[in-house]
Design a protein that fits this description.
By secondary structure, the chain is of the alpha/beta class. The chain has ten helices and eight strands.
């Protein structure tokens, strides 16, 4: 049973931009879905969260606030990257979401880690379809199917001494995605630009798997990726905006905390996202965009700015 009591009377919520954001969201094309990459940030009080919510409230019910805020049509679930989500967690998340609300979910990192960092030996679980089905797909199918949007397989940066040949990496992906059930939407996020080659895109396209058009410190920009022929490999597109290139995570985090305001306006990023949205609308592809605080300082405010720019330009 859905538990959406926190939003039974939205008129009582002391959020000054709620109605304006509702009207703004109505102008956004229905196949463009934006949202934050996570949700437990106290600095969003008065922007997304009503005043007075504590850390425990955010951990327990923060997802509900995010899913009911009118600007957000999706949200990222990162916790699943570190360990598979158990039954109780998936049921708790599902109880906080409106019907059909899709989440961009990271797959368990054990499946996407090439080299075990503890032993420096090859990881035997790397791209193991049976392991993925048992620990990732089956729990989602049983407890979270209605809310499972694209499932993102994120590959951490691979040091040059361990970096596989790009053709070999593409072959790995070809076999892996070819062995998975077709009932889910899959996407691959790489963080080594050396792997972004035609054979990689061809392998994804063969199985209807999306290439994640990411914003990350050592990858080409969103605009540069969009310019690559065949980069939109699936009927849907995932864009994960994490951190502008040539920046560093810890420095950005220190500069932007507590994530309650826009600190650095990234005009190039905004223009690139508009171009991506325009391409997806023209090609009739569904676009999922998740935004991290490290992009401009406050994920919800960046989402609002992107929607304003998209509805103005498209």
């Amino acid at each position: 049973m859905k538990q959406l009591g926190l939003f039974a009377d939205t008129a009582t919520r002391p959020l000054p931009n709620l109605e304006a954001d509702r009207k703004l969201a109505e102008r956004l094309p229905p196949a463009i879905l934006l949202g934050p990459s996570s949700w437990t940030f106290a600095g969003w009080e008065g922007i997304v969260y009503p005043p007075g919510l504590g850390r425990e409230d955010l951990l327990e019910r923060g997802l509900e606030h995010i899913a009911r805020y009118p600007l957000f049509r999706t949200v990222g679930i990162d916790r699943s990257h570190y360990a598979p989500l158990d039954e109780a967690t998936l049921q708790s998340y599902a109880a906080q979401l409106p019907p059909g609300f899709p989440c961009v979910i990271k797959a368990w990192s054990a499946i996407t880690t090439l080299i075990d960092a503890r032993t420096m030996a090859p990881n035997p679980a790397f791209l193991d379809p049976a392991l993925c089905e048992q620990h990732v797909l089956l729990p989602l199918a049983r407890h979270f199917r209605e809310h499972t949007g694209p499932l993102v397989f994120q590959f951490a940066p691979i040091p040059s001494r361990h970096l596989p040949d790009p053709e070999m990496f593409a072959a790995f992906l070809d076999r892996f995605f070819g062995a998975l059930p077709t009932a889910f939407r899959y996407a691959a996020e790489i963080r080594n630009r050396e792997l972004l080659v035609p054979s990689y895109l061809e392998a994804l396209a063969r199985h209807g798997v999306g290439h994640v058009v990411n914003l990350w410190e050592r990858m080409p920009t969103v605009g540069q990726q969009l310019a690559i022929p065949g980069v939109l490999t699936a009927p849907f597109v995932v864009s994960r905006l994490s951190i502008p290139r040539d920046n560093r995570y810890e420095e950005r985090k220190k500069l932007f905390m507590p994530f309650n305001r826009l600190v650095a306006i990234e005009e190039e990023v905004r223009a690139d996202v508009v171009a991506l949205a325009r391409a997806c609308v023209a090609l009739k592809k569904t676009l999922f965009i998740t935004v991290n605080n490290k992009v401009e300082g406050c994920s919800p405010l960046t989402v609002r700015a992107l929607i304003e720019r998209i509805v103005e330009r498209i």
